[in-house]
Amino acid sequence: MHGDGLELALVFLLAAVVAVPVFKRFGLGAVLGYLVAGALLGPHALRLVRNPEPVLAASEIGVVMLLFVIGLELSLPRLKVMRKPIFGVGGMQVLLCGVALGALAMSQGLGWKAALVVGVGLALSSTAVGLQLLSERKELTAEHGRLAFAILLFQDLAAIPLLAAIPLLGKASGEGLGWEEVARAVLAITALVLGGRYLLRHLFRIIARTGMPEVFTGAALLVVLGSAWLMQLAELSAGLGAFLAGVLLAESEYRHELEAQIKPFEGLLLGLFFMAVGMTIDLKQVAAEPALIATWVAVLLAVKFGLLIALGLRPGKLDLRGALLLGGVLALGGEFAFVVFAEAMKAGLLEEPLRDRLVAVVGLSMAATPLLLLLISRF
What we know:
Blueprint: H1 2-25, H2 30-41, H3 53-72, H4 76-81, H5 83-107, H6 112-123, H7 127-136, H8 143-172, H9 179-209, H10 213-233, H11 238-248, H12 255-279, H13 283-288, H14 290-313, H15 320-330, H16 335-346, H17 352-378
Helix pairs in contact: 1-2, 2-12, 3-11, 3-12, 5-6, 5-8, 5-14, 6-8, 6-16, 7-8, 8-11, 8-15, 8-16, 9-10, 9-11, 10-11, 14-15, 14-17, 15-17, 16-17
């Protein structure tokens, strides 16, 4: 057993060390590198990992930690300064793209609950890929770069209630959602907010006095995983608990140290999560319907690209070049879509073949984005 576990860890690390630099070298991003490495290792290709489900379950801790770090970055003063582009343009982007893509999903025979999840999930863009492309092009401080950051920030916020709602939507599609479940959810959130507000800072202040970094790291992990566990007890998304804990600590004096302690775990486990998602993609099924997948990718990019140009020109007050670059950076799908579709499949809202197609569409849209930006720049 120990040998098998060690061999599996070596395979994952080797795949990440080889695939990610190669994909980043060609401007395709680390996320796509993880996905491709996972797809090759999984049961539908080389079969080095025959059952990806345990890996996927364990690696979801990376998503929980990502949401905690996002919460740490959302202090109230920062939100007040950027409130108009974040909640105005960002809110309109998620709403318009979600409605348009959700309507297209309903036209393909999905029910309104599944269409809602698919539409909003595809409306989200990749924070990792988008910010990396803007950084490489030295456009983070440009007008379209700042607006893109604001939209991505709102998308991160929008992913939280979506992840929290998916288990409730799945339950509502079956036997019906009772008042007990709602009361349990409200009670858990209230307990976390009150406990976090009045206890967490005192806890970290006491631990900081010990002068032992390993104890501080352990306390940070305890808060993240404990918050996630509390939400799971209430049958809500584990990520919701971690996000709320991050927001509660965003203005504390230990915010930067907490982020520094969690970041290495988040990066490794998030990479493992993307690899596990790649393992679950049925490559034979995708290869059997390339025209369908290519059409979906084209539709996704076209819908989001067009709406983002319109939003960039009008409420965003960008010139045509800036609006085109904004559309090029954010037309792709995002990392949260993998999480959203995985949760939706668990809740019974999506079938596995449809989830595989959607994951493939998001991954291919990420690969197409650097090429799209290159064409826009030359145009």
